[in-house]
Specification:
3-deoxy-7-phosphoheptulonate synthase activity; binds manganese (II) ion; 10 strands; two-stranded antiparallel ribbon; TIM Barrel; binds phosphoenolpyruvate; alpha/beta; aldehyde-lyase activity; Phospho-2-dehydro-3-deoxyheptonate aldolase; EC 2.5.1.54; 9 helices; transferase
Length: about 260
């Protein structure tokens, strides 16, 4: 179902008022904090994200943290904060659904439902998302092969929802200078095999904010349709993933530079 042999054309997915991929050399950038921390943070960030020319606001309300002692997200309150940011900016809201218990709530508030890397093989969750009439952003599992990634997408499509966006966010390797190894060759490989749109997340893909703009440019040059980027007003004091979060100024610069690259393709 996800195969290019079956459908040649890229799947067009509605993200808020936009059709994704955007076309016309425009890169679809979704940016925002790793986690929703409070209303003021999200509204201020959303304004900057909008000004930078992004199409979506990301932010986790339900957070799948590696440690149970880390900040777990504002949960339902976080969803309401995201909805306010959409009201004020018109940006589409992209937020994660971590469990079968909150599919309905997240589907009510979000414009795009994210499945995190840790849940890529949560098959009952994927099947439940197949029944939702909203786009799903499916992240590649930490140790998944591309065929497993595509089969996970098939679970969603097979259950009835064709609106799937694939997200390469890096995989675990022996290398330690990065949080994850970001395999950009997966972009042409996926473009060859599937008609589903592809976004790249260089924030989780590297773990270091200084690497993010360069990998955004590389991802676009390699054929990514969009980017998912963590952006924080004050990365040093972020409640999660500050080290890999770029500032709003960094985001504005990054969007300009990837747009230039997209114009040459
Ligand atoms: C996230 O996007 O904040 C996240 C938790 O990502 P991943 O599932 O790729 O680790
Ligand atoms: Mn994060």
């Amino acid at each position: 179902l996800a195969s290019r042999e079956v459908v040649k054309e890229k799947t067009a997915i509605e993200i808020g008022p936009e059709k994704f991929p955007l076309g016309g050399n425009r890169v679809g950038v979704i940016a925002g904090p790793c986690a929703v921390e409070d209303l003021d943070q999200v509204l201020k960030t959303a304004e900057k994200v909008k000004e930078a020319g992004c199409i979506g606001l990301r932010g986790g309300a339900f957070k799948p943290r590696t440690s149970p002692y880390s900040f777990q997200g504002l949960k339902y309150e976080g969803l309401e904060i995201l909805a306010k940011a959409r009201e004020e900016t018109g940006l589409a809201v992209v937020t994660e659904v971590v469990s079968l218990d909150n599919v309905e709530a997240v589907a009510e508030f979000a414009d795009v439902l994210q499945v995190g890397a840790r849940n890529m093989q949560h098959y009952p969750l994927l099947e439940a998302l197949g029944k939702v009439n909203k786009p799903i952003l499916l992240k590649r599992g930490l140790c998944s092969r591309l065929d497993e990634f595509l089969l996970a997408a098939e679970y969603i499509i097979n259950a009835g929802n064709k609106q799937v966006i694939l997200c390469e966010r890096g995989i675990r390797t022996y290398e330690e200078y990065v949080r994850n190894t970001l395999p950009l060759a997966s972009i042409p490989a996926l473009n060859e095999r599937t008609h589903l749109p592809i976004v790249v997340d260089p924030s989780h893909g590297t773990g270091h904010s200084y690497m993010v703009p360069a990998m955004c440019r590389a991802a676009v040059a390699a054929g990514a349709d969009g980017l998912l980027v963590e952006c924080h007003l004050d990365p040093e004091h972020a409640l999660s993933d500050g080290a890999q979060s770029i500032t709003p100024e960094g985001l504005t610069e990054m969007v300009k530079s990837v747009t230039k690259i997209a114009e040459t393709l």
